[in-house]
Amino acid sequence: MAGSLVSLGMNWWQAMLTFMTGMLVITVAITLGGVTGARYHISFPVVGRLSFGMKGAYIPVCMRFVLAWIWYGVNLWLGGECLYVVVLAVWPGYNDIPKGFSDPDIHMRQFIPCIVFWLASIPVIALGAEKIRPLFMVKAFFLPIAGIVLFVWSVVNAGGFSSVLAMAGTNVQNKQPFFWAFFSGVTSVMGNMATFAINCPDYTRYSKTVRAQTLGQALTIPLGMLFTGFLAVFISSASISLYGEAIWDPIVFISKMDPSSALNRVLQFILGLGFCLALLVVNCAGNALFAGNDISSLAPRYMTIQRGSILCAVVGICICPWKLLSGANGFLNFLSSYTTFLGPIGGVVLADYWIVRKRYVEVSELYNPGGIYWYDNGFHRPAIIALVIGIIPNFPGFLNKIGVSCML
Question: pTM value?
Answer without folding.
Answer: 0.84
